[in-house]
């Protein structure tokens, strides 16, 4: 079995990823649990029901594999075993309906068929596997580790593809079906989280998952040469272009890219720098939520705290500031920005300690 160091070395540009676990990291994790308790309680009250369903109220009150997985990860991070089990139980009953170990991507409470599409979403599966791995260690539940391994293995089998003509660079597709084209693939760069992919690859001896993490980091570097990294791209061998009928701006999805890179220890990645440059031009008191890919022009802004948190963390790390404009948590924000804000808090504590809120 490959060791963690071999995986990290193989990632190359990921060599700066967050420090390996050790005594300081364990102490840091304990501090993070304590510091997030009030935020976690507020997040649950706003976005989680008693059954364990994470509700995206502005998206038809839907629940997604992404939201369920994010909730599981947050519960594991703060050491909340009871809530973790509740979210995982709802997820298994309602979304784990495929023949493999991946989840159907969406559940609609008011639709005649609550799961009209059994296709998966690879970002939700990735975070669920990562959350289960984290929970297996924190709560000493071997069954969680076994399930995490099955999910990660199926994710590799169903969603990792080699890109012809790109030097064998693998990438993770958004889902098992629907993103192959006649000449290549359609990819969402924000679906890959390098730190999660590397930790799962290390735990379960899945080198293709580690290589796909490297592929994602490399793809984001190439895209950053031409502007902010967009929501979606078409990859045809060595050619990267706009994907028909998909957003080629850096919008609500793409803002996870700098967050995940910083969290993974890649604070100087070109995609972070490009994003921070654009955010620095946003009007005071707001964050850019849609940015033109090529010109860098800000198309939409928001004053919601979650988006401002990602912007502030990106600017701080890109400019090597001490202290940042990370705002206080606002539970009244919708599910998505509220969740991004909690993740930004975790990323700041674990990977950018100099960016503490001022």
Largest sheet: 3 strands, antiparallel
Task: Name the strands of the widest sheet in spatial order.
Answer: 5-6-7
Report the C-alpha radius of gyration, rounded: 19 Å
Name of the CATH class: Mainly Alpha
Which structural category do the helix and sheet elements fall into? mainly alpha
Report the principal-axis shape: globular
Binned strand content: 5-15%
Kindly give the count of domains. Answer: 1
Secondary structure elements and pairings:
Elements: H1 4-11, H2 23-35, H3 37-47, E1 63-64, H4 65-77, H5 81-94, E2 106-107, H6 122-138, H7 142-159, E3 160-162, E4 170-172, E5 185-187, H8 194-204, H9 207-224, E6 233-236, E7 239-241, H10 256-263, H11 270-279, E8 287-291, E9 298-302, H12 305-318, H13 335-351
Antiparallel strand pairs: 1-2, 3-4, 5-6, 6-7, 8-9
What does this structure look like?
By secondary structure, this protein is mainly alpha-helical. It has one domain (4-355): Alpha/alpha barrel (Glycosyltransferase). It is 48% helix and 8% strand. It is built from 13 helices and nine strands. α1 (4-11) runs parallel beside α9 and α8 packs antiparallel against α9. The longest helix has 18 residues, at 142-159. The termini are far apart.
